[in-house]
Specification:
By secondary structure, the protein is an alpha/beta fold. About 45% of the residues lie in helices and about 15% in strands. An eight-stranded parallel beta sheet has the order 1-2-3-4-5-6-7-8. Bound molecules: zinc ion (ZN).
């Protein structure tokens, strides 16, 4: 069985001492690819270094909306960004490494943590979308409490030119439908085990538009245990149960979605 985690943060300090066993557990569970996402200038560099650790690790480089503004002083475990990111410089850095990366991410907008710079967030996100189209990479989008605004910008700027992956999408049902009709992919985290929102999302979205992720170490489905890539096996089981399919069929289809989005696309356009 081939499983995939399309978004996590294994560069987090919580993995400093057990990265090898975390990767081994993922392999034992059937995980064949893990995309580690950068969030700012320093963490993009960290991710590029980290993946040298094991060929199962793949890369997406990004500019997290809160980091872009230089407002991540509350961050623990991954590098903080205490001054605004020079967006054009960061694009240059990402472009220089484009042959090594599968996607642009984590990018997007976050109106939950930042209540005051929404116009600026929109302006940055538009630039990020234009950049993703220019270098022909799928885009992994964080849209916390900015789901509708993200869809507006994605619809205008991406317009089918590169795949869009909505990471942990918390939008209401009408917005799920809109994302689905736009042909976007939705990632499902292991917290689906207890989250009725993700269960609803899986009911509404066809299997060919679903992917699995963990956002590890965050969003663990288990109390007092950090999240890790091996837990995608739990997500696959739950998706299979909701869709009335076997675990095998579900895993195969999601792996196929992964190769369509991140690998075929790469071959098609580069
Ligand atoms: Zn994340």
């Amino acid at each position: 069985m081939n499983l995939v985690d399309v978004h996590c943060h294994l560069n987090h300090a919580l993995f400093k001492d057990d990265i090898d066993s975390v990767i081994q557990r993922a392999k034992d569970a059937g995980v064949k690819s893990i995309i580690v996402s950068g969030t700012n200038t320093e963490s993009n560099k960290q991710v590029l270094e980290l993946v040298k650790h094991d060929p199962i690790l793949n890369i997406s480089l990004g500019i997290h909306p809160i980091d872009a503004l230089g407002l991540s002083e509350g961050e623990t475990g991954i590098p903080k960004q205490l001054k605004p990111i020079n967006i054009e410089e960061e694009f240059k850095f990402i472009e220089k490494n484009k042959s090594k990366i599968l996607a642009i991410g984590e990018v997007g907008m976050d109106f939950h943590w930042d209540k005051t710079h929404h116009a600026e967030q929109k302006e940055i996100f538009r630039k990020v979308c234009t950049f993703a189209v220019r270098i022909k990479k799928p885009i992994i989008v964080h849209a916390w409490e900015a789901e509708e605004e993200c869809l507006d910008i994605l619809e205008a700027e991406i317009n089918g030119k590169v795949p869009v992956i909505l990471h942990c999408f918390g939008g209401r049902k009408a917005l799920i439908t809109r994302g689905k009709e736009l042909g976007y992919y939705f990632t499902v985290p292991p917290s689906i085990l207890k989250s009725s929102n993700f269960q609803t999302l899986v009911k509404k979205v066809n299997l060919h538009q679903l992917l699995t992720e963990t956002d590890a170490p965050w969003q663990s489905p288990l109390k007092d245990t950090k999240n890790e890539p091996s837990f995608v096996a739990k997500t696959i089981q739950k998706i299979a149960e909701i869709k009335g399919l076997s675990v095998q069929e579900t895993a195969e289809k999601i792996w196929e979605n992964y190769t369509d989005v991140f690998l075929s696309h790469l071959n098609k356009h580069l």
